[in-house]
Amino acid sequence: MNYTVMYWNRATGDVYEVIRSQMPTGWRLVTLEGETQEEWRAQLRQADFLLVADWPVTAEDLDAAPKLTMVQHQGVGHERIDKAALKARGIPLALCPAGTTVGVAEHTMLLILAVYKRLVAADTKLREGTWLQWGLRSTSHELAGKTLGLVGFGRIAQAVAQRAHAFEARILYHDPYLTERPLAASAWNAVAVPLPELLRQSDIVSLHVPTTGETRRFMSTSKFEQMKPSAILINTSRGAVVDEPALIKALEARIIAGAGLDVFEQEPIRPDSPLLKMDNVVLTPHIAAGTVDALRQKMHSVFANLQRFARGEPIHDQVV
Fold it and tell me: At a CB cut-off of 8 Å and minimum separation 6, what does 235 contact?
């Protein structure tokens, strides 16, 4: 049987082609046309499956999709999907952890090094005609010998630990949900510590937790005050886990030394955000997992899961 998959996000033509390249023969991808919610919801009537990236899925959206049988997320951040409405309709929701680990781990390292090496300032000033061969030496750092504190120690944080170990960093982690020491911790000499100790000892604090009631605005003023004045914050997880106004104050007051951020409380970031004017911050637009390599891997896994559902088999990574 052939199925219609609605991509419930706006993307570019080249992204749609990557998605189509991984689809089963005979299946059809519908991409959104028009500019209004009403136009998009009208197209939902065609959908057997809904494929979601980062848009919300509301009860009203589901009401507009009478044929819908499953929602498949291409990632793992499902806080904007109305799971109660899905459950009421008996529609399963599945996630796709595949394809995120390497990209996000590499991007975490990229942000650490970019902040430490003052990459944006060096590049910007060079293009403006200022040669900072000596001007950045007193404010640039090496990762070797520094202490990296990982808040959360799941698959992505463990991949970061592997890479940071190769840079000769000392690695701490805090994850209250781990019941035993992971093999990766031994492999990369990572040491489990209480959160206050991690904040106090770390030169770099990197966040690797989902958005939950427990983690929302987890990094607050009190947490920043426990960090070293020379420490930097890295966030490639979710913007909601950081109290952004508190972070801005901590950066302005030099309570902490800098930050590398790929995610924000509001996305796209507000054009008047003070973060945009800070020279001790490196910002990227939620692209940590946004590589063509990751997209192909994700879509392969996504359509394998949808085919499992179509065959009546158990689906992987089901949330609802």
Answer: 206, 207, 219, 241, 242, 259, 260, 261, 262, 263
Please state the pTM of the whole predicted model.
0.92
Q: What is the side-by-side order of every strand in the sheet holding 49-52?
A: 28-31, 4-7, 49-52, 70-73, 93-94
Number of helical (H) and strand (E) elements in the chain, helices listed first: 12, 12
What 8-state DSSP symbol labels residue 46?
G
Q: What are phi and psi of 312, to 5 degrees?
A: 80, 20
- pLDDT by residue (tens digit) across 287-305? 999 999 999 999 999 999 9
Strand blocks (E) in 37-120:
49-52, 70-73, 93-94
Question: Counting Cβ atoms within 10 Å, is residue 150 exposed (0-12), middle (13-18) or buried (19+)?
Answer: buried
Give the residue numbers marked as catalytic: 238, 267, 286
CA 207 to chain CA centroid, nearest Å: 10
